[in-house]
Structure formats: structure tokens, C-alpha cells
Amino acid sequence: MTKKRTATSKPKKKPSKPATEENGERSLLGDQDLYLFNEGTHYRLNEKLGAHPVRRNGVEGTHFAVWAPDAEAVSVVGDFNGWEIGRSQLHPKAQSGIWEGFIEGVTKGVAYKYHIKSRFNGYEVLKADPFAVRSEVPPKTASIVWDLEYEWNDEKWMAERGPANALDAAISIYEVHLGSWMRVPEEKNRYLSYREMAPKLAEYVKGLGFTHVEFLPVMEHPFGGSWGYQTTGYFTPTARFGTPQDFMFMVDLLHQNGIGVILDWVPSHFPTDEHGLSFFDGTHLFEHSDPRQGFHPDWSSAIFNYSRNEVRSFLISSGLFWLRKYHVDGIRVDAVASMLYLDYSRKEGEWIPNEYGGNENIPAIDFLRQFNSAVYQEFPDVQTFAEESTAWPMVSRPAYIGGLGFGMKWDMGWMHDTLRYMSHDPIHRRYHQNDLTFRMLYAFQENFVLPLSHDEVVHGKGSMIGKMPGDDWQKFANLRALYGYMFAQPAKKLLFMGGELGQWAEWNHESSIEWHLKEFPLHAGLQLWMSDLNRLYRNEPALHELDFNSAGFAWVDCGDAEQSVVSLTRHGKRPEDVILVVCNFTPVPRHNYRIGAPKRGLWQEILNSDAESYGGSGQGNMGGVKTTPISCHGHPYSLNLTLPPLGSVFLKHALP
């Protein structure tokens, strides 16, 4: 199995050296920079555009550069000049559409915006810097001159992270919204800062055994209720929780604790706030001008114009920036389906077909392939993830064979089918067995992640524990059984915060996880179950090595719908690595339940969701069961098991 992904595009020439007093250059932008920018292949654009503190002839100041091709005049306004329009003018850089200039005395910490006067209709506007690396704390919207100097201490992780991020690794992701993971109620419910949260999050995630943390978008956004998905600062970690260096500290500390970091990233759309990218220079610069292509009906936001080379340079530079400057280990691309289809969420007549008459968004497809190729070319030891909810083929296959080039794809179908199955009263589940087993018809067509994400615990959908039927004991047993089945399936795993505790309330971005629930036995038992599942998943090669290979999975029996039982085996690369999993999705214990065994001898019960320590009834198989020479389910040997009520049981072959 391939562990690393590589790109096919040839490396481009490096951009020209930055301007300093020593090299005597007047501009950060050389001819090669302009060529690559206009070609759509400048992947370090943030090093050239934006605000960069430099020295010119012994004088401290800042070099500003902004893309505004239809501007008549551009000036920088800010604290340094009393926000006076026109006082600090920028100048056009040849015919590139870029305006630039060096302003003396502007140093780190100064707030600023660009005043843009358009050539059209007398339009004038103040814009935040699209390439700013720091911004004011919302609701303020100015950019801040800053640097990204930081002394990293994660050398060991960075040198060795390839195997931890590989396709054959155990990858179990804890999804986190920074603003609501933990708050301080006694201090007016305030957020924790990046630095306050870092040690608490690292200790908690490490204790639970998750391998990675995935943050909902940390990029700056004006509206907290968007959870970060309405991004305005594509190079700026939100100032709500601290400085860029504070966020670096968090990533650094997670890495020092052996935890990978994945960031949500939103190249699909952006908000229309006046200070942002929308109608930037009096024209639809970053977005399509036709609302049938440039306006998203679901989110009332603007859609990037992927056919514009400069926009591709901007977006790919953003994605690579977080990998390069913040040492992150993966990028999860949001709303990929909305990018792929021109008619996404649109009725007939509300969209424009492509040049061939189809609904495929060809420039967006090309952009995604270009982005993924660029990522894996520079960072073969990271992964990209697609949140893609349709049957688009080869999402997680390399671009050079016609795929989109992602490393992995969220399996939204599994999530919907399985939660629908689990929501049924157990007495009715016999009629819905197909919901539980259908994914195995397509499970190896992509490199899948099984997500139980934030989207499933908001907007009236209820919490994870709230979706489960029955009394409290049955709800927790159901949820433990669900998590057990999830970890038995061939795919990587993702769970949104609070799901490990059995939080009763739906997720609310304005409040903290219900941490007090840890004091109650059923909640503590669920948390312990998740911890033990993660450790088993990490320690047993059979449960992760062949997640994306059909050789790693086999049904023992998926057809016992009458008793709502499924049994399967997972296999590692070595023949001796075999795990047998049996799940009983009814509250009725099954005694003397016979299933086929692929190997003769003792099978140890290594995990049982009905153990008393998890809040279960304590029914099981006394530590292990030996096979008998009775053929069953196509195997010459079989096991006579006790299946606990609403339980998932994991067994490992121990002796011949």
C-alpha cells in the first residue's frame, strides 16, 4: 500500500529574493513572481503580497503590496497616518494589477487597511489585507503588520510524522471547535486563549488516545456563528484566541505530545462583508460576476472564480501557508461537492452549463487537482481530506490517473445510514440491516474517513446520545455499540468533541462541553470505552493497516437480520494479525451464538462494550473461547459465544 503521495507537476522556479537593504532591491516582486502569479502557479504569494516589515537604506518600514487591477488609486491607511485617505499612496507594478510601496516608520503591531478607489462608478472602499497574517479581534476588521517568527520545538515530530500520517497508519481524529471546547463560566463564559487551551487539549486528547486533532476553521472570520466557515482571513488565525505565535505554540505542544493537527480550510466560498474579498477593487475580482456562478444560495456567500489564474495562486498559497508556517499535518477541504457541480443547490435556469453542456465545474476540478498535487509535491508526509458528499469518482485517487488527488474522503453515506439504523428502536432494526452493511459495497472505492462530525449534532439533530433509543442505560449501551462498530469498520475515524462524553445537549458554539458529566458513571464509562477503543485501534495492526484494502476485511455473517447481529474479521499485513468483531444491536443477550472462526484455537476477548467498567451489565466470554471443529459460515472451526446486550465484542486469536 502506498504510504506517500507525490505530485506530477514540475517544480517552478523559486520567487525572487525579498527586498532588504543588503541586496538593494526596491520591490519584493520580481519578474518571475509576476509571471508565476499570472500563470496561477505562484505558491508562495504570501511572501510577496501583503505587509512585510523591512529595512530600506537603514530605515525601518513596511513593504505593502495588494492585487487590485481595476483600481484607479490605492493607499494604505492606519494608526500610523491617522487613517487619512491618500496620504500613503501605493504605485502600480508594471501591468500586473499589483499596487505596492514602502512606507517608512510602519512597524510590527500597526493596524491598517487599503483604501481602494475604483476606476468604475466612483466606487471607494476600505479593505482588509487579503494576505495579512494577523488581524484585529472581531468585530474590528483591520489588518495588523506582524511577523511569524517563532522558535519551534517539534523537530522530532516533524522528522518522524510520515508514518503517523500515512494511509496505513491508525488515524483517529478528535474534531474541535476552539471557541466552545472549554470556556470559563465564572469569568463571563470567556474563551480560553490558544496558550491556555494548548496544555489542556494536549493532555485530554493524549489521554483519550486520539492520534490527531482537527480544528474547525481557525482562519479569521467576522461572524462567530459561522464556526469559521465564512472566512475573510485566509492567512490569519483568528485573533479571538491570541496571536499567530500563540496558535503556533498550540500546534507545537500538540506535536510534542505526539498528536497531529488537521485544519479545516474553505476554498469553496467566502462572505460578502465589505472589508473582505468581495467586490474587492470595484469589480468581481475573486468571485464570478454572474450570480449563477458567483453566489452561493445556501450560505449567501461568494464563490471563487477558479478559472482566474491569480485566484488559484491566492488559494493554493493559502493552503500551503498553513502547512509551511504552522507545521500542520493535514488540510480538510470543506464543501467539495459545492465546488464540483455547477448546479449544486440550484434549480433549473439558475446555473450555467459548462462548455460541454454538463454540470461539472471544470475550472474547480482543475483547481482541486492542482492544489493536491502542490501539497503532496512539497509535503509528502501530510494528508488532504475531502468533505465530499456525492458519488463523484476517484476523489482520493491521484490526479495523474484522473482522480482529484485527495489523500482521503469523508464517508458521508456511512454516517447517514448508520445513524438512521441506530435511531430505530431495536425491535425494528431487523428490517433495516441493509443500512448497517451497505457501505461494504463501496468501502474500498475511496480512502474513507468515517465522520461523526459537528454537522450531526446541531440544528435540531440532537446530540449523539440523544439519537439513541431506549432508557438511559440502553442509550449508553447503544452508543458504545455504535462506536465499537465504527472502530471495527475499515476506514479512519473522526468524532466531534462531546461525543466521547455522551453530552446530552446539542452542540452550542456559545457554550462549553458539559464537562461536569465526567462525574457520572455512565458518562465516565463511555469516555473510558472511547479511550480503550482508540488504544486497541492503534495497537492492533489488523484494525488499521489495511483500512483501504479489501484484503483487510471480511464478513463472517452480515445476514442475521432477525437477531440484528453482524460479525466480521479485520486483517493486517501479516497473516497472524486477525481480529474478530461481533456486534449485537438488540438489548437481548445471545447465549450459545455460534460463528465461524478463521483460525483454530483460543480467541481472547480483548474488548467488550458491556463490561461493567464502561457501565455495562458485565456479560461476556470469561476472557476467551476455544474453537470447536464444527464448520460454520464457510470456516472449518467455530466459536460458541455469549453476545452481550447492545454490545460490541472484539476477539483476538491467541493460540493454535
CATH topology of one domain: Immunoglobulin-like
Calculate the mean pLDDT score and round it. 94
If strands are numbered along the chain, what order do they take across the biggest sheet? 9-12-15-18-19-20-21-22
- Residue share in helices? 10-25%
Terminal-residue CA separation: 29 Å
The level-1 CATH class of one domain: Mainly Beta
Number of strands: 30
The shape is elongated
Classify the beta-strand content into a percent band.
15-25%
Q: Please, what is the oligomeric state?
A: single chain
How many strands, what sense, and barrel or not for the largest sheet? 8 strands, parallel, barrel
In short:
By secondary structure, this protein is α/β, with parallel strands linked by helices. The protein has twelve helices and 30 strands.
General description of the model:
Residues 1-25 have low confidence and may be disordered. 22% of the residues lie in helices and 24% in strands. α3 (194-208) runs parallel beside α4, α6 packs parallel to α8 and α11 (472-488) runs parallel beside α12 (521-539). Among the domains are: 31-144, Immunoglobulins (Immunoglobulin-like, Sandwich); 418-447 and 465-656, Golgi alpha-mannosidase II (Immunoglobulin-like, Sandwich), CATH 2.60.40.1180. The chain is elongated and about 90 Å long. It has 656 residues and is α/β, with parallel strands linked by helices.
